[in-house]
Amino acid sequence: MRPRPVRLMNMQALPETLLAEVRDRYGVVADTAEAISGGTASKLWRLDSEPSVVVRLSQYYRLPDQQWSCRVAAEFAGELSEVIPPLVGSDGEAVFSWQGRPITVWPFVMGERLDRRNLVQLRQAARLLARLHLSARAFPSLSEGKPPERNDSEAERLLPDPDLDRWLRSWQEHSDDQQAGWMHRDFFPGNVLWRDGQIVGLVDWDEVEWGPLTNELAWSVWEFGRSLAGDALDLDHALEFLSEYRRAGGPVRPTNDLIPLIRARLRSDIAFWRRGNAADPAEDRAKVAAFSALRHVSLVP
Fold first, then answer.
1. What is the C-alpha separation between 200 and 56, in angstroms, rounded?
2. Mind listing the pLDDT tens digit for each residue in 194-239?
3. How far apart are the first and last CA of the chain?
């Protein structure tokens, strides 16, 4: 479960003390650092080193969380060229703590965020997810994980839906029957980099966890199939994503489970961002509208 939202440290320039720490730990020599967009979860700086790297300060996650996510990313990088592994420091760790915040360093990859309206790009993303799931076994150095325990009582009070609650309880009771593996869990266009007609990077492994792969397929269908406003699901795009995933050998068979899993994740997201008074009003309204509208949608190819 994600920690409580907090405000990012208010800084644009990379502090000299942090730059020196990166140099000492990773052997990265740079004169300047450029702040680049890191979304709501992190602060990013691109260094003018050779080759160029990105220094990432995590907003939400603790040091042990980041160490684990880096280990999983490194394992996937051994299987898929699109996965960018973190740099490992002189102490053998990919993560260190600076002023109480986890810091990681990654190779810089030039690319644009994927365009969910472009069907060529959408299909390639679906194929990448299929390959991720085919590789999502218990890696020798990690073995199997344990699905995190979640308490969604706050979300249930916020957007009551007794039918969904009953369905989720039944689904969770039988989750051992689902194919499980390591999941990226934030597979959406902003984390998939595109250049020269192909996907060149899958980044941001903060939310990695072990669990039923159906969960990740459901949320990916939403992220790549949703309307631009985020208030509805474009069924043509969603079904195209699912079909391409299966054509590429994706191991999860699409079922009627997908829609309630999407609605459950939407509800949890709404509660998460409201909890810290960090919700964008327009996005919040769109998610609430989608949560309601999806109740009447069927999504099986």
1. 19
2. 999 999 999 999 999 999 999 999 999 999 999 999 999 999 999 9
3. 31
42: left (phi over 0), alpha (psi -120 to 50) or beta: beta
Q: How far is CA 73 from the centre of its chain?
A: 12
What residues in the chain have per-residue pLDDT under 50?
A: 1, 4-10
Structure tokens belonging to residue 226: 């949703």
Beta carbons of 48 and 33 less than 8 angstroms apart: yes
Q: Kindly report the length of the chain.
A: 301
Indicate the residue type of 270. I
Structure tokens at 199: 């996907």
Q: How far is Cα of residue 16 from the mean position of the Cα atoms in its chain?
A: 30
| DSSP assignment string, 229-287 | TSSSB-HHHHHHHHHHHHHTT-SSPP-TTHHHHHHHHHHHHHHHHHHTT---HHHHHHH
Residue 280 and residue 252: Cα distance in Å, rounded? 33
Answer whether the bond into residue 251 is a cis peptide, omega within 30°. Answer: no
Question: To which residue do tokens 């000299």 refer?
Answer: 16
Domains in the chain and their CATH numbers?
16-108 (3.30.200.20), 113-296 (3.90.1200.10)
Alpha-carbon distance of 133 to 179, in angstroms, equals: 10
What local confidence, expressed as pLDDT, does residue 177 receive?
79
- Given this model, what pLDDT does residue 139 score? 79
Enumerate the β-bridge partners of residue 252.
none
Distance set, CA 91 to CA 234, 238, 298, 299 (Å)? 48, 44, 51, 48
Residue 259, pLDDT score? 97
Radius of gyration of the chain (CA): 19
**What pTM does this model have?**
0.91
Both tokens of residue 203?
């980044």
User: Residues 51, 27: contact at Cβ < 8 Å?
Assistant: no
